[in-house]
Write a structure and sequence with these properties.
Rossmann fold, single chain, binds magnesium ion, 2 domains, Hypothetical Protein Ta0175, Chain: A, domain 2, 11 strands, binds alpha-D-glucopyranose
């Protein structure tokens, strides 16, 4: 066994089955101590909602945190987002213009204030309206000269973020910083905002058995041997995948 970079989404991926989570945590803790494996959480949650989940589920302290769908990276437990990453996201981004453009769409219901972040504007959008609204909104944002990306997850959550930012690109940043090759990196997820994790030059991916249709559809359209679709749900699926790839 050797060290690896372990990256996981939280809601309905790492978290969702308490018994399996506790088994997985034991194994992760062990491989971190013995081999120097790094543990990273990559979530759409803001710092406030992350802290709530961390306390409620007694999550292991990660080595780095990717919050707000990849727009914020926190290293070494500091409360300040990495400034090198923030600077990369600044060009082509104007939060006020994004907000102004979205007001034309009554179907977009703003998420709570805690989830509105410097590089992330988030709404609730019903699935039925999404197919109609998303292409229109994307066009309007492009026409305003903004370099942004729309990320739609779980048939309800819409995040608008800088184009250079998503969970996958944040993982690339950490891989380069910590010098992990793709083969020593494994990413885990269940929904739309995790597609970027699987899409960016990462060798090993675990899709948990309870994955959402949008991720399964993408997986079917972009098959890859380096990606494993687990049978078990949540942390149980992660354990299954880590064994499949020989990480545990
Ligand atoms: C989390 C965030 C929310 C975001 C969603 C999908 O639930 O709290 O703001 O829209 O993830 O990325
Ligand atoms: Mg999830």
């Amino acid at each position: 066994m050797a060290k690896f970079l372990f990256v996981t989404d939280l809601d309905n991926t790492l978290v969702g089955d308490d018994n399996a989570l506790s088994r997985l945590n034991d194994r992760l803790q062990q491989t971190r101590q013995e081999h120097g494996t790094k543990i990273v959480y990559a979530t759409g949650r803001s710092p406030i909602l992350y802290q709530e989940l961390k306390n409620a589920k007694n999550l292991l302290e990660p080595d780095a945190l990717i919050l707000s769908v990849g727009t914020e990276i926190y290293l070494d437990g500091t409360g300040t987002p990495d400034s090198e990453w923030s600077e990369k996201l600044s060009s082509g981004w104007n939060r006020d213009v994004v907000v102004a453009k979205t007001t034309h769409f009554p179907e977009l219901v703003p998420q709570p204030d805690s989830e509105q972040r410097p590089f992330k504007v988030s709404f609730l959008l019903q699935q039925e309206a999404a197919e109609r609204i998303l292409p229109q909104l994307e066009l309007e944002l492009q026409e305003s000269g903004l370099d942004v990306k729309l990320i739609y997850s779980s048939g309800i959550d819409l995040d608008i973020v800088p184009r250079r930012s998503d969970k996958g690109q944040a993982v690339q940043f950490l891989r380069q910083k910590w010098k992990f090759v793709a083969e020593q990196t494994v990413v885990c997820g269940d929904s739309g905002n995790d597609i970027a994790l699987f899409a960016v030059g990462v060798a090993r991916g675990i899709i948990v058995g309870n994955a959402r249709p949008e991720l399964l559809q993408w997986h079917n359209e972009h098959p890859a041997d380096s990606r494993y679709l687990a049978t078990n749900f949540c942390a149980g699926g992660i354990l299954e995948g880590l064994k499949h790839f020989g990480f545990l």
